[in-house]
Amino acid sequence: MNDVHRPTLETVAARAAVSRQTVSNALNAPHLVRPETLARVLAVVGELEYRPHGAARQLRTNRSHVIGLRLEPTVDGISGALLDRFLHALTEQAQQRGYRVMLFTAADDDAEIAQYGELLDVLQVDAFVLTSTHHDDPRTQWLSTHGVPFVTFGRAWASGDAAPPVQHAWVDVDGAAGTQAAVEHLVERGHRRIAFIGWPDGSDSGDDRRAGWHRAMIAADVAAPRSLDGLCARVVDGVGSGSAAAEELLASAEPTAFVCASDSLALGALVTARAHGRATPSGEVTAVVGFDDTPVARAIGLTSVAQPLIDAAERAFGLLLSEVHGNRPRSAGGWAGHQVLLQPELVPRESSARPAPRGPD
pTM, whole model, 2 decimals? Predict the structure, then answer.
């Protein structure tokens, strides 16, 4: 689009029936705009394909309107799709407000921190979005110490007896609620021996998902707390490890259903469960529930827990703009509106459709 026909701030304001300042606030400080007005303005921005003039905007605001985000390597191509979807939604949010997402890679946390310094010095990046948070996360400590705006997709995890985590803006999905819903779904189908295949101890999100399974099993009164240890496997993420864990649990604990911490683990468990089902005279197949609702889960009929990634990206970007504009809480107790825990949704499919096989609990 050439400059003659390029829509202006005034064009957007007239079409949305708001002031020029309201349009500016919607793009740069959305926390100042009422939700219904913000939605109307952003709809007009998309309709008119309005984009602020980059050079003039940078001179006026002394900001680059560039956001940095580390692109993590894909391990198996299944669970990696989760962050791809989040990144796509975040990029859409950024473009609507005249920002760009700068992707970079790093081997570990220290290398990522080194990239922060370079991107701040060379490109004058305004802020960062972090993923895969964990306890004692040095990245959040570094950014907080240096006064750099950031938001994380993943909460600030506590680390037991260590000092409290750095307080910061974050958006996360309640993994424990997701696995609890999975167990409740299976209990309704008549299952009692429900095993959990998760990640090794120390994985914060993995521990959270295992806690939801444990809580739901106790609430359903289907097993004593100590007996649940025999129904739980802790393995690295992957289809192969999920399959091997399911094989061992079927031999030792004879579960009728599996709840898994990821779709990768669930796919492995499903392959093993179907093989065992074909080997039994009745042909009964163990139920399997995954987590993340990846395209693979939808393609093979795997029941899974879906994360609200579009909502997460929208909320994260709104919090990030608040950080960029200095609207962060001034006290430890003021972080409530800046730390958002979203609820996932269980999506039932064929892998858990059959009722539990008859037999002893």
Answer: 0.79
CB 53 within 8 A of CB 344: no
If we measure between CA atoms, which residue out of 169, 175, 126, 131 comes closest to residue 292?
175
C-alpha pair distances (Å), 330 with each of 128, 140, 333: 20, 17, 9
Residue keyed to tokens 């529930």: 289
DSSP code for 356: P
CATH number, position 239: 3.40.50.2300
The pair of structure tokens assigned to 239 is 């289809």
Residue 361 maps to a domain: no
Q: Per-residue pLDDT tens for 210-248?
A: 999 999 999 998 766 667 989 999 999 999 999 999 999
Angle at alpha carbon of residue 112, lines to 111 and 114, rounded to 5°:
65
Q: Residue 189 — φ and ψ, nearest 5°?
A: -85, 0
Q: How far is CA 167 from CA 36, 82, 332, 338, in A?
A: 30, 25, 7, 10
